[in-house]
């Protein structure tokens, strides 16, 4: 099903809850993947330039899918930061930890920003964790992300254990990660 057709049918329901996609193809909602999607990371506050994979074996990732032009995405970032701080009180949080928090910018469906523009934008948002770019839309497509913000708790095998579309509280983000950690431990 084309995203544009899906969005046309649900735009009224989604109004006010986030920023919708512009019409790229979807994968019909499959929420797990066997191979990692490679994302370019931005050299910015709390983020090192390079690449990461989603999923990442042996790790739960809190993946916050955003667009820089979406006000709901920007508002959600402070809650992601609060959740990261809370998770860090009991877990190893970071690129090499058992939990990795990453915000992923969709550059596929809109105008692309340069790495320095993204770093400046990230600083304006007070971001202090990994910032990555979905340059070809692969992550958004693989995980059925049709609007932003969409946040996922993904285990090392790529299974989504928790999902929120449109924004939620830091407490719910932490709970979603804990659900994924519990499932990974069993």
Task: Compute the number of strand runs.
Answer: 9
Report the total helices. 5
CATH class designation: Alpha Beta
General shape: globular
Largest sheet: 7 strands, mixed
Strand percentage lies at 15-25%
Domain Redoxin: 57-181
Organism: Haloterrigena gelatinilytica
Protein name: TlpA family protein disulfide reductase
GO molecular function, one term: oxidoreductase activity
Question: How would you describe this protein?
Answer:
Strands 3-2-6-5-4-8-9 form a 7-stranded mixed β-sheet. The chain has a single domain (about 5-30, about 35-185), classed as 3-Layer(aba) Sandwich (Glutaredoxin), CATH 3.40.30.10. Helix content is about 30%, strand content about 25%. Helix 2 (about 70-85) links the parallel strand 4 and strand 5 (about 100-105). The chain has 5 helices and 9 strands. The protein has about 190 residues and is an alpha+beta fold. It comes from Haloterrigena gelatinilytica.
């Amino acid at each position: 099903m084309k995203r544009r057709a899906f969005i046309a049918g649900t735009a009224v329901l989604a109004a006010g809850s986030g920023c919708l996609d512009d019409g790229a193809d979807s994968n019909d909602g499959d929420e797990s993947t066997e191979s990692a999607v490679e994302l370019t990371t931005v050299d910015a506050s709390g983020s090192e330039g390079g690449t990461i994979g989603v999923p990442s074996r042996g790790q739960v990732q809190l993946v916050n899918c955003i667009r820089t032009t979406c006000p709901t995405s920007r508002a959600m970032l402070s809650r992601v930061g609060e959740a990261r701080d809370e998770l860090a009180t009991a877990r190893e949080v970071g690129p090499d930890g058992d939990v990795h928090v990453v915000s992923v910018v969709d550059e596929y469906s809109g105008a692309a920003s340069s790495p320095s523009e993204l770093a400046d934008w990230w600083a304006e948002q007070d971001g202090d964790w990994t910032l990555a770019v979905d340059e070809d839309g692969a992550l958004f497509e693989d995980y059925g992300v049709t609007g932003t913000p969409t946040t996922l708790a993904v285990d090392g095998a790529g299974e989504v254990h928790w999902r929120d579309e449109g924004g939620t509280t830091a407490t719910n983000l932490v709970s979603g990660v804990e659900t994924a950690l519990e499932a990974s431990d069993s």
